[in-house]
Recover the amino acids of this structure.
């Protein structure tokens, strides 16, 4: 609670600072309101001296509420910025200058050997330049962003991801990027600097969350143009109204021309202050929502583009399927009893700690009722020895005395079988091919070199992903699955997951050309990637999300980085992009629709002295029409701050449904809400005897 | 060179062809429908004469000066509905009628006490004839039955059974009366009255009589039936496909372009297109301006008219070149036949054709993908002309058949049946009836949504718009091209339903405008209720607010026309807008202030609408969470910048110029009507000129200030917008076309149509409501306030 309070307090202070016209002029709508506030304040001073155009109390109240209007708009912006500022503070602490062990470029680095103390010099991290090499070891803080060129180590990246589990960083492969400010938990690394001081990931992130570097996005600029245009119209409307009023008084022979105060009040009420005041807050909050989702974007454009995406390229593994295959069936060969196969498979997998291995144990237990046993050296069978799975051998197993049980990839096991002098039977080959053909992965089980059966491993489509894709389809977004699997496997999974299309046996070139093909057809393509070989495709895609665990080239090619390294995040990003645009559109509509009621409030009040018949337009029967309208106009900004910061409620709807809903709520609602609001304010003013 | 050739084509060849055919086929109508009686010319059946003696039937009051029914200067009174001068004048007429026939206590039919739009209305309503029956019978010592029989014999029913009003031609009836007194007359006596006034009692449905509904429905039906063939035809012409007219227009187009040195295949980018447009338009202003200055030295000037004052001449030249056709002059007394046909009517063609060419450039910008050119200005100009020319020829001949004049002969002087005294007491015994090549100019005036009349009273003048049928044809013509272009657009971008969607949006906006105008005018003027005047429509008379309207059209056709002519940028009038009721006038202004996009001018209406579509699509696109795209083209800041400025220009012009006018002496010096209506006159003037409509609250008269300020408003309102439209086209044409996906907002669905209507309405309402509230809205509220007091 006190945190919240501090946030509001700070926002309020910032809102006052933002009244400075030198910064406010960037927001044309609010700048005009401020000029109006200044003018009415001057008129109030004049009225206080007794020469005012209207009672000082009235002008003073209008002036005060006009100031409030600007203040509220600034407050919204400050509040949106405030959320990011706290985050920036903690990030900035990480960026402090640290000591770095810079390697002498001349020194010879031997593969797999940690460099000796003579090979590096300790320098401040700020002196490191792109291309330099440095050495970090357990307990060190990584001084700047870089790419691992030697070694493997576990790194604590919780400072930027919020995840406490350490991640592995190693040279080569897809996990070679390290971020300045994170620290090594074990082992050592030699890293090549990839960014000069001040240009690193952390620096970028800080400026991003602070909103300092926020550039206006194309849609925001276009909307701003429209808002400035409307402001221009209303300035002309109000200025010409003064002339019309003067003439009307002259021709009717009664009444007094409309006062400057009322005209300024009318102008401010008509100008799109609601959206004008909240526009930048909406943008900042959108960026902030993305950061809350642990996604860092390099440009605001990318968020908007995400809202426009027509095609999502999704990696099969991790996005559509669970990261691992699971055992779904056991197929005996050579007349082996199924229970025997189950038992042997279980034994072979007990030492296999991979998800696949565990899934075999689970399958056997659930399907054949064999409970996991503690298999250790016993009286009967001494000398049990487990052979754990390794990606080198691609098999696991157990030796119980003379009995050697193995299970693994067919080619590895086949050579075992042949070595033991058994033939590869047609039956075995047939089973293996059948499983691969159906999109599964076969594992062959042997005992003492004799094949007993085949385990069917299969990709498991994530729960709920089908529905998610159906939603995307309703929103008009096409999903394409990318996989290295063969066509058959890919087709099976694609059908199961409900994607619209797939790219099988995907190569980097294949991905790139697919993206180009879609883009040539005018589509906007989004994709995720992590490997170095994804980089060209990421660079080509309109929205490219790199996994934070990915390689430096991938991260550089992308325009967003997902700190959680969760490929499903792409869908959230699309939704945030859409929500951002929707919020702007909805509040623009609301703001403009509001004007009708304000006319009915102010016009009769302004001209009733000349044409009493205009009282008929005072539909709301207002007593303090002008003041009520101005107060409403200011308060509505405050009331809409939550919507601006949170975004309008997002539901995956078709374009037409979304438009209908928003027109009903913000268009029709926007016409009627101020009639009620202004009337209530007027009643309150009457009650307090204004 | 192009200009010269096109002038020869549209300014010389076209009127000549129409005249020759007209003189051969319809000689009587083309030469003024002159009435031969006992071997001498007794007048024109289409031009009314003044009658004041009790023994004659009196016609409509006429507001022409210096004498009533001065055919040389047709004009309405332009008195506003709340003007005390109007109430006074009407009261005086009622008193005069009562004085001439003290025993008659029936309510007075409204058309008998309200001035006609042209000042030359030849007709009165059936009820107005019967009202005068006892007086005339007594004055002539004839039996009521005799006179009644005569009236019955002179009742002209509705044309084709549904068009216009049943009416009686006053001149013909009075001549017949005189003949009755002379035994030699061949007229049969003692006809039993087959019809009397009560037979014309009709029932009304929702305030309109059956025939009124039918004539509106017929107009809508004929219009709807024409949209597809005409729209399709235009699309074919623009894209250079074969049409039924190709055997004639093909070679003509080729010859025109070749002779002008235009390479038809050379496409232009928007900049070059705009330069061509502006250079050509400069000539289009300079030539008519000079023609007016030297017309005294040129032929076809039967009245020997001298040079036009330079400010008027400039205003007129700009006015016609911008498709506005605002007329700050009395044509029949200011410009020669040559100036009219070779100077002004040519601009009627060219300004409309320019509008169409600009529209086609914008359409091409939508339909082409990643291109850089938007068509060839000269080719599109010539093709547009070749659409307008054949249509105009047909319409012109139809009009001649109804009595629209088409001759190079000079004016005709006819005797007045009853000589009158002018304001200074001099006896006037003759009527000078001006003629001229009117039909050819009027056809393009309506087809090209120009609106500039051959005569001062425009389409209220019996020689411009002689019958209900001609009125029907003209009203249809002024709507049809602008409406059909929506279909053309749909065809050219490859989705007819998108074109139909825009047409639907326009129609949704138009129906309430027309409806309110009709409702307002049929309601009549509450100020007349206390004067013993009958304003109800079912009793053998049009009823309603007849001030400034012609009997042959009645209320509904006049009010509908007023909404149509202001919604399209035509501006031709068949009744005097200044004398409409406040709400009727409000409708006219609102129709223009919506941006002249409800059908709008030919070309300009649709390109204006497309700008609104961009804005509507932008906001709607945001609301569905996608960067807005229209017809596959992404809308980006640059387009929004242009679209916003285009929408702002007329608003800016109208309000600023009106503000300047009301604050300055010259601006307020020539207002006719007092109170809010006077303000409306100025607001209307700048609304009309900034939006290139050209109709007027004509009570406001010209002076140096208005000639120049209106010329400026017209010029900026037309050409700045046109150049920006071309810039928009230039930017759109470069974009690739994004194929529609499930996430694309469908721009032809009902929801988007409704949204578009909403955006157009709200932009118009927000910009003009304050100004309108000090004009027609205040006038209306004051009036109903008074009405309540009377009840």
């Amino acid at each position: 609670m006190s945190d919240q309070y501090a946030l509001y307090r700070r926002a309020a202070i910032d809102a006052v600072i933002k009244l400075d016209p030198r910064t406010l002029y960037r927001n044309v709508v609010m700048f005009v309101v401020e000029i109006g506030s200044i003018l009415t304040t001057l008129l109030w001073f004049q009225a206080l001296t007794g020469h005012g155009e209207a009672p000082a109390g009235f002008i003073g109240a209008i002036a005060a509420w006009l100031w409030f209007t600007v203040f509220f708009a600034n407050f919204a912006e400050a509040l949106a910025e405030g959320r990011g500022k706290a985050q920036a503070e903690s990030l900035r602490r990480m960026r402090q200058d640290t000591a770095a062990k810079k390697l002498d470029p001349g020194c010879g680095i031997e593969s797999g050997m940690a460099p000796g103390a003579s090979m590096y010099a300790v320098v401040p991290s700020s002196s490191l330049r792109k291309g330099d090499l440095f050495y970090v070891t357990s307990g060190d803080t990584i001084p700047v962003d870089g790419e691992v060129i030697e070694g493997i180590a576990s790194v604590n990246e919780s400072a930027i991801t919020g995840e406490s589990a350490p991640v592995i960083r190693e040279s080569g492969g897809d996990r070679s990027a390290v971020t300045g400010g994170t620290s090594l938990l074990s082992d050592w690394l030699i890293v090549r600097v990839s960014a000069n001081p001040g240009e690193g990931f952390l620096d970028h992130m800080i400026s991003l969350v602070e909103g300092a570097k926020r550039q206006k996005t194309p849609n925001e600029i276009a909307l701003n143009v429209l808002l400035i245009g409307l402001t221009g119209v209303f300035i002309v409307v109000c200025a010409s109204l003064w002339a019309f009023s003067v003439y009307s008084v002259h021709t009717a022979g009664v009444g007094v021309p409309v006062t400057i105060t009322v005209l300024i009040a009318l102008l401010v009420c008509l100008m799109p202050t609601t959206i004008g005041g909240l526009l930048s807050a909406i943008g900042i909050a959108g960026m902030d929502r993305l950061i809350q989702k642990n996604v860092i974007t390099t440009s605001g454009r990318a968020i908007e583009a995400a809202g426009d995406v027509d095609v999502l390229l999704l990696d099969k593994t991790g996005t559509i399927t669970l990261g691992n295959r699971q055992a779904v069936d056991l197929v005996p060969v050579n007349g082996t009893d199924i229970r025997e196969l189950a038992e042997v498979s279980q034994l072979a997998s007990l030492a296999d700690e991979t998800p696949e291995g565990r899934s075999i144990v689970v399958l056997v237990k659930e399907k054949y009722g064999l409970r996991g046993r503690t298999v250790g050296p016993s009286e009967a069978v001494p000398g049990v020895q487990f052979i754990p799975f390794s990606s080198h051998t691609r098999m696991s197993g157990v030796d119980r005395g003379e009995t050697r049980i193995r299970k693994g990839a067919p080619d590895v096991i086949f050579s075992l079988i042949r070595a033991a002098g058994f033939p590869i039977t047609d039956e075995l080959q047939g089973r293996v091919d059948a499983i691969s053909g159906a999109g599964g992965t076969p594992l062959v089980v042997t005992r003492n070199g004799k094949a007993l059966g085949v385990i069917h491993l299969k990709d498991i489509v994530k729960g709920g992903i089908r529905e998610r894709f159906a939603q995307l389809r309703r929103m008009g977004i096409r999903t394409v699955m990318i996989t290295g699997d063969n066509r058959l496997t890919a087709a099976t999974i694609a059908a199961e997951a409900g994607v619209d299309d797939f790219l099988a046996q995907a190569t980097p070139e294949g991905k790139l050309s697919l993206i180009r093909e879609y883009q040539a057809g005018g589509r906007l393509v989004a994709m995720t990637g992590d490997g170095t070989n994804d980089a060209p495709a990421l660079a080509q895609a309109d929205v490219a999300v790199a996994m934070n665990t990915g390689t430096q080239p991938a991260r550089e090619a992308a325009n967003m980085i997902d700190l959680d390294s969760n490929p499903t995040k792409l869908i959230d990003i699309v939704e945030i992009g859409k929500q951002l645009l929707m919020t702007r559109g909805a509040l623009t509509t609301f703001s403009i629709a509001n004007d009708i009621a304000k006319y009915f409030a102010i016009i009769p009040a302004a001209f009733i002295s000349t044409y009493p018949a205009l009282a008929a337009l005072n539909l709301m029967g207002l007593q303090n029409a002008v003041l009520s309208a101005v107060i409403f106009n200011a308060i509505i900004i405050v009331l809409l701050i939550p919507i601006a910061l949170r975004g309008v409620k997002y539901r995956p709807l078709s374009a037409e449904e979304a438009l209908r809903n928003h027109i009903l709520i913000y268009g029709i609602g926007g016409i009627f809400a101020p009639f009620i609001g202004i009337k209530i304010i007027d009643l309150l003013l009457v009650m307090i005897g204004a | 060179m192009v200009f010269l050739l096109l002038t020869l084509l549209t300014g010389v060849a076209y009127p000549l062809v129409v005249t020759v055919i007209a003189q051969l086929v319809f000689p009587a109508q083309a030469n003024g429908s002159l009435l031969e009686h006992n071997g001498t010319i007794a007048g024109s059946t289409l031009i009314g004469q003044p009658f004041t003696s009790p023994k004659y039937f009196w016609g409509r009051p006429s507001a022409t000066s210096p004498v009533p029914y001065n055919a040389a200067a047709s004009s309405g009174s332009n008195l506003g509905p709340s003007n005390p001068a109007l109430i006074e004048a009407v009261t005086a007429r009622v008193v005069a009628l009562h004085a001439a026939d003290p025993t008659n206590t029936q309510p007075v039919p409204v058309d008998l006490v309200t001035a006609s739009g042209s000042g030359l209305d030849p007709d009165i309503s059936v009820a107005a004839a019967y009202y005068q029956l006892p007086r005339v019978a007594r004055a002539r010592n004839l039996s009521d039955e005799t006179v009644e029989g005569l009236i019955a014999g002179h009742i002209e029913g509705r044309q084709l059974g549904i068009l216009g009003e049943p009416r009686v031609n006053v001149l013909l009836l009075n001549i017949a009366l005189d003949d009755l007194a002379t035994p030699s007359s061949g007229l049969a006596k003692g006809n039993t009255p087959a019809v009397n006034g009560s037979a014309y009692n009709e029932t009304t449905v929702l305030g309109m009589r059956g025939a009124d509904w039918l004539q509106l429905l017929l107009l809508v039906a004929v219009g709807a039936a024409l949209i597809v063939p005409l729209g399709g035809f235009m699309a074919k012409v623009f894209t250079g496909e074969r049409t039924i007219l190709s055997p004639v227009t093909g070679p003509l187009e080729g010859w025109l372009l070749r002779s002008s040195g235009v390479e038809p295949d050379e496409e232009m980018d928007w900049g070059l297109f705009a330069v061509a447009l502006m250079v050509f338009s400069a000539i289009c202003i300079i030539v008519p301006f000079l023609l007016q200055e030297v017309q005294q030295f040129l032929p076809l000037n039967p009245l020997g008219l001298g040079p036009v004052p330079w400010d008027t001449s400039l205003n007129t030249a700009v006015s016609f070149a911008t498709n506005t056709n605002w007329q700050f002059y009395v044509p029949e007394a200011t410009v020669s036949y040559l100036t009219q046909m070779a100077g002004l009517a040519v601009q009627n063609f060219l300004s409309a054709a320019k509008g169409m060419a600009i529209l086609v450039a914008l359409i091409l910008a939508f339909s082409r993908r990643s291109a850089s050119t938007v068509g060839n200005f000269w080719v599109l100009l010539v093709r547009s002309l070749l659409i307008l020319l054949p249509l105009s020829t047909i319409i012109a001949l139809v009009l001649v058949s109804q009595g629209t004049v088409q001759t190079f002969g000079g004016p005709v002087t006819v005797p007045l049946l009853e000589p009158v005294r002018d304001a200074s007491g001099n006896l006037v015994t003759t009527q000078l009836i001006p003629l001229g090549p009117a039909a050819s100019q009027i056809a393009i005036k309506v087809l090209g949504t120009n609106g500039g009349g051959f005569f001062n009273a425009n389409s209220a003048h019996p020689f411009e718009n002689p019958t209900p049928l001609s009125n029907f044809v003209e009203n249809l013509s002024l709507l049809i091209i602008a409406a059909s272009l929506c279909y053309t657009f749909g065809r050219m971008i490859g989705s007819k339903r998108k074109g139909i969607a825009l047409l639907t949006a326009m129609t949704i906006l138009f129906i309430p405008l027309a409806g309110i105008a009709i409702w307002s005018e049929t309601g009549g003027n509450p100020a007349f209720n206390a004067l013993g005047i009958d304003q109800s429509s079912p009793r053998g008379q049009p009823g309603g607010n007849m001030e400034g309207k012609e009997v042959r059209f009645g209320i509904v056709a006049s009010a509908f026309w007023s909404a149509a002519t202001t919604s399209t940028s035509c501006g031709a009038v068949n009744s005097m807008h200044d004398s409409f009721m406040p709400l009727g006038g409000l409708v006219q202004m609102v129709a223009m202030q919506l941006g002249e996009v409800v059908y709008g001018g030919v070309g300009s209406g649709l390109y204006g609408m497309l700008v609104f579509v961009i804005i509507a699509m932008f906001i709607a696109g945001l609301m569905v969470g996608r960067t807005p795209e229209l017809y596959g083209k992404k809308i980006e800041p640059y387009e929004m910048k242009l679209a916003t400025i285009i929408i702002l220009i007329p608003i800016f012009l109208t309000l600023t110029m009106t503000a300047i006018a009301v604050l300055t002496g010259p601006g307020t010096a020539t207002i006719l009507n007092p109170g809010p209506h006077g303000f409306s006159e100025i607001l209307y003037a700048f609304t009309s000129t900034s939006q290139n409509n050209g109709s007027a609250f004509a009570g406001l008269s010209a002076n140096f200030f208005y000639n120049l300020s209106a010329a400026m408003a017209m010029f900026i309102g037309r050409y700045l917008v046109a150049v920006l439209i071309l810039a928009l086209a230039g930017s759109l044409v470069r974009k690739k076309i994004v194929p529609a996906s499930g996430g694309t907002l469908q721009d032809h669905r009902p929801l988007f149509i409704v949204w578009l209507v909403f955006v157009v309405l709200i932009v118009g309402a927000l910009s003009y409501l304050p100004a309108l509230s000090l004009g027609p809205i205040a006038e209306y509220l004051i009036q109903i306030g008074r009405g309540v007091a009377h009840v």
